Amino acid sequence: MEKYQSKLLFACSLILMLNAGIQALQSQSIRQIKSSTEYQWGIGANEDYKKADQLALDDLISKISIVFVKSENEYNFEERQGDVNDYYTSIVKTYTQTTLPQTLQIVEEKKGITTVMRYLAKEEIPKLFKLREKKIKDFTALALKAEKEFRIGDALRYSYWAYALLLSHPDHSTIEMEFEDQGKMLLEAALNEHINSIFSNLDISVSDLQLYSEEDKKNILLDISYLGQPVENLDFSYFTGQGYSNITSAKDGMGLIELFDAASHSLESIDLRIEYEYKNKSYDKELTEVLNTIQVPFFKKSKHRIHIKNTDKINMQPPPEYKSSDIVSETMNTKPFDASRYKSIVLKVIADIQNKSGEKEGAYFTEDGKEMYQKLLQYGRVTILPFDTLKVIKLENEVIVRSVPMAFSFENNNRRFIENVVFTFNKDIKIDALSFALSDIGLNDILKRSERFGTVEDKYQLIRFMEYYKTAYSLERLDYIKSIFAENALIIVGKVLHVAEPIDGMYKRLGNTKVEYIRLSKEEYMGRLANAFNSNEYINICFEENKVKKVNGDDKIYGIQIAQHYFSTNYSDFGYLFLMIDLNDSLNPKIYVRTWQPAKNEDGSVFGLGDFYFN
Q1: What values do phi and psi take at 389, rounded to 5?
Q2: What is the pTM of this model?
Q3: What is the C-alpha R_g of the chain?
């Protein structure tokens, strides 16, 4: 027994000696870091390790803000309220989502108190700012691309985000960027000028006035253009006479103002505020921190006044009753067919929506089509917007009628959307499906492809699939989504990869070896979707841009890369979606690969066909 006690005493003594040695080494390391001129450090002490670590990080942030930001900045503080040091500290805290949590750490425990040192080499600090500079320039490039494509909402959003990030950079007044037309410019001046220029080149005018006497509602329909071209997207709110409205999303040059009381009907003008901050669309924590911290100048030109009174060419009128003779039908086929029959049915459906009558709907729809139509009406309060043309396309045994502009608003939410609705007829001339259209840019990106990419019919089959996919999430068509995913589809959610066995050798492995492989069944993925559908009043998906490639050969296998905004009642995000689909059987399309990532890869790429191998 004494033998074992001696061994135990020796072991305890050894442990105490080792602990003392480690504490001495750590204390010596802390002293060395403190006395060195090569490191920036912060220290925190508390009974709780997490609190001590946070105190150390806060101390480090405070010192970086004083030594490395204040000394290199020339901010104008003449009109700034509060303490300058606090403001610098709040700026540096916006970097905590990236580099600062990865700083080196020394931990010491003594008498129940944990002391933590956070430190990093001073030469590492400029790298922290370099990462932000890259993001600033990436956002600026995205803004310029969006402006060229008349995606003005996206152009304003990316420009403002770049501007806010720039003001959080210590070298904000000296950072330059090369521009296509102007050459190299200081980015701060260029972004300020770019945002103001966008506002100046926007033209917003009243195109129509409608009065719904039974609802005491007045609609003001807007034409919104940029440099003479209809804007692809734009968000705005407007003054109703009592306060500002919820955010309204304009699309394809169309905007809608809804006034719901007699007092607002007498307004002679209405003030619009063009959205440019887009805090609700911020998709990473670092950017969100910056948007909530940085004091960005207010852009006065974001306010527009729309004059209603004395609008010469417009008289107040009830919503129009569309007649077949008033609507032009454009056919997109070489073989003749009777387009008027399809146009006539669509106009009857529109009349039913306007009259809130569903009496005849059974005569126009298949069972699937009727179910989608009812879900469309339940999706939100529907307003038909003016139109004068319907495009009618015949595809094998189907006919597609494009497209009717509709506005959707929701009782319990602050978003309003405009969507162009597409009707698909089966061979029996009944509406078998409804969908939300791609943007004109997305549509043309596919249609302009050469014949090597596919026939006109092939291109419209691809467009139809993308529109069905987008709409299925909005109308919560879980059965349809189940049907288009292959049973063992490769599914990536976020940064995590979910994989099943290869499908007939279609792919072997992902090219990116950094992604972790985890098995997840199709049923589990569908279970997640079912939960999302059950917990939201609405879901809306917007495709910001899409790129389509085709696998070489005769097979109709396509890879689609999409910048996607996802909105719902209680959640929103932005990310890059990739779908690999098989359209060899156009009536039974299959998704073999679906990936989603919150940001592009380090080299600027997005998952695509190049990440997969084919036999």
Answers
A1: -140, 140
A2: 0.75
A3: 30
By the 10 Å C-beta count (0-12 exposed, 13-18 middle, 19+ buried), 437 is classed as: buried
DSSP code of residue 449:
S
Six-digit token string for 582: 């098989």
Question: Taking Cα atoms as reference points, which of 61, 103, 118, 52 lies closest to residue 86?
Answer: 61
Helices assigned H by DSSP within 102-216 = 125-148, 152-167, 187-200
How many CB atoms are closer than 10 A to CB 574? 17
- Torsion-angle region of 396 (φ positive above 0: left; ψ -120 to 50: alpha; else: beta): left
- What pLDDT, on the 0 to 100 scale, is given for residue 577? 86
Query: Rounded to whole angstroms, what are the CA distances from 266 to 20, 260, 263?
Result: 82, 12, 6
Among 569, 574, 507, smallest CA distance to 537 is for: 569
> Which residues 6+ apart lie within 8 Å of 93 measured at CB?
61, 289, 293
- Pull the structure tokens for residue 331: 């056919």
Q: Which of 195, 204, 188 is nearest to 254 (CA)?
A: 204
Nearby residues of 214 by Cβ (< 8 Å), 6 or more positions away? none
Angstrom distance (rounded) from CA 461 to CA 467? 10
Angle separating helix axes 49-64 and 84-93, nearest 10 degrees:
120
Query: Could you give the angle at the alpha carbon of 107 between the alpha carbons of 105 and 112, nearest 5°?
Result: 155
Kindly tell me the burial class for residue 200, based on how many C-beta atoms sit within 10 Å of its own C-beta (0-12, 13-18, 19 or more).
exposed
341 within 8 A of 407, measured Cβ to Cβ = no
Q: State how beta strands 517-518 and 539-550 pair.
A: unpaired
CB 376 within 8 A of CB 434: yes
Please list the alpha-helical segments (H only) found in 184-303: 187-200, 262-265, 285-293
Helix axes 152-167, 285-293, angle to 10 degrees: 70
Three-state SS letters, 535-580: CCCCEEEEEEEEEEEECCCCCCEEEEEEEEEEEECCCEEEEEEEEE
Low-confidence ranges of the chain (pLDDT < 70): 1-28, 66-85, 87-88, 96-102, 213-215, 262-265, 283, 309-335, 357-362, 411-414, 492-521, 537, 570-572, 613-615
What gap in Å lies between CA 382 and CA 385, rounded to an integer?
10
Tell me which residue has tokens 């989502």.
97
Residues 6+ apart with CB under 8 A from 563: 543, 544, 545, 546, 574, 576, 577
Residue 465: alpha-carbon gap to chain centroid: 21
- Residue 548: which residues within 8 A CB-CB, separation 6 or more? 445, 446, 449, 462, 558, 559, 560, 561
- CB within 8 Å of 194: residues ≥ 6 apart: 143, 144, 147, 159
